[in-house]
Each structure stands twice: as structure tokens, then as C-alpha cells.
């Protein structure tokens, strides 16, 4: 993953993919894998960045 973003649950996704998924979300995010809910937007995961 070139620009990995990590969610509060710990799962990481491609920034382009997760930004597209959350483009219309304003307050509550849901992880596409575990369905955890959180209010903090995804952040870049520098440990996975290639």
C-alpha cells in the first residue's frame, strides 16, 4: 500500500479507497472489515507506507 490509512480499530486501507468510501461521511465512520464505529477520521499509517 503506497498511502495506507489506519482506522481506529487498527485496520489499514489504501488512502484512495478509504477516502472514496468516506467522501460523504461527516461524523461517524464504519470499518469495512469489522464494522467498528468511530468518529475520528482515518490517519496515515507511516509504519506500512512503502
Topology:
Layout: E1 4-6, E2 12-14, H1 15-21, E3 29-30, E4 37-38, E5 43-44
GO molecular function, one term: zinc ion binding
Domain RING-type: 7-35
Pfam families: zf-C3HC4_4 (PF15227)
Plain-language structure description:
The protein has one helix spanning 15-21; strands at residues 4-6, 12-14, 29-30, 37-38, 43-44. It has one helix and five strands, in the order E-E-H-E-E-E. Helices cover 14% and strands 24% of the residues.
Task: Give a nutshell description of this structure.
By secondary structure, the protein is α+β, with helices and mostly antiparallel strands. The chain has one helix at 15-21; strands spanning 4-6, 12-14, 29-30, 37-38, 43-44.
Jot down its keywords.
alpha+beta, 5 strands, globular, two-stranded antiparallel sheet, 50 residues
Write down the overall geometry: globular
Largest sheet: 3 strands, antiparallel
Domains, number = 1
The overall strand count is 5
How many alpha or pi helices? 1
